[in-house]
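Hi V.,

You were right to ask for the full record rather than a summary. Here it is.
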Amino acid sequence: MTDPLAIAFTAGETGPWRIAACTPVTGTALPAAPRLAVTAAGAAPGGVWTLIGTTSNTRYATRAETDALAARQQGLGRPAATCAALIPIRKSAAWWALAQDERRDIFEARSRHTAIGMDYLPQVARRLHHCRDLGGAYDFLTWFEYASDDAAAFERMVARLRATEEWRYVEAEMDLRLERD
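Predicted structure:
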């Protein structure tokens, strides 16, 4: 793994991403804002809200899955990727009460989380940010980037993930859709 990377997602008046929609899937909505800044240097000034997460060691994925993901995924920041989604998620206490192997079984063996994501590579690039231990409102912040031509594929991926057993443990989820000018 590379060194952890702390990322701040700040909604406000500035940032390269226009917030096209900010929808609570479950839980409380975030305050409205027109733009989103994504920075590694801390929260952008003047924000309405900021969510902070960090990259971390791989959890739940096997070596074979990790290698397959690395071989197929393209990086973030591709010029063609003018669409993005930020999906903050908090899982229930029941999820965290499970042992690691029980969470892995639900995550992959039964819900096929990694396998579903693989079906949409390389069109959809993603990076997971952990924030459970940072004291925020969410456990994970997932950042996705894709070209506008791949928006329907992204919608299918998200719908498939939300239909899994794993999503029964989600107690808060926001869905922010973004467009780069």
